Structures are given as structure tokens and as C-alpha cells.
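Many introductory courses stop at the sequence. We go one step further.
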Amino acid sequence: MEFSVQDDHIHALVEGDDKRSLERGLRSLIARVTKRVKKALGISRAKVFGDRYHRRDLTSPRQVRNALVYVLANFKKHLRMTQGAPRIDLRSSAQWFTGWIQNRQLPAESSPVEPPRTWLARVGWMKHGLIHPGEAPRSPS
């Protein structure tokens, strides 16, 4: 659904029909990304990703909205930006995201992500407001 590529890891907000299909989809995604990264770097044997991922099932509109901000604005956390500048991460799906509070010109290229299928991910999260490009992920308290 949405993603953000950092220097040494990837954040993604994904949907799956069940645990098995989610795990198979993530393995497939990791294999495809690994193949492209190795090709771009001209390497064949190095390990690109670790063997783990963090899974958290989101069950409320607020959780989904917070996760969207976390994924789409994660570069601000890594750059230690506490006051978010109104800009988006070009190494993420943010430029195709349509839930910004301000209308944005979408890129000419088609979106690299599938549209959300569940009510929570499609419209439920909007109950707590569209996202401002200046928002930054909150630190856990």
C-alpha cells in the first residue's frame, strides 16, 4: 500500500488476506527488491536484507493514520527533524499518495503501489484528518 526506502531498511504498510498470504507476499517483495538492488550495485553474493520484519496488525482508523505518517514521513525521523518541513520523501510512495491535506500534482508515472482494499486503509483513517506534508512521526512516549 505505502512504502519508504531508508539507507539501510524499508518501511511498508501492506495488506494481506491472512497471515500466510502476507508472509508469502513479503518474501516475494523482498526477493524482487534484493534482485534489483544487487543489479544496481553490481553485486551477486552480498546479503541485502536481514531475515526479519516487524508485523503489527492495525485495527483502528487512528492506528492506520499514525502508520501512514510514520511510513510516509519516516525520513524526517532519520534526519532528526522535529519540526517537519512541508515536503515529501522522494524515496517513498508519498508522491503518489492522495491523502495529503493539500492537493498535489501526481507524477506522470503510474503509482508503484496497489490501491488499498480495506475500508480502514481506503477511507477509515481519514476520520482523523488528512495528512499535512509537514507532519513528522511522533516519538514513542
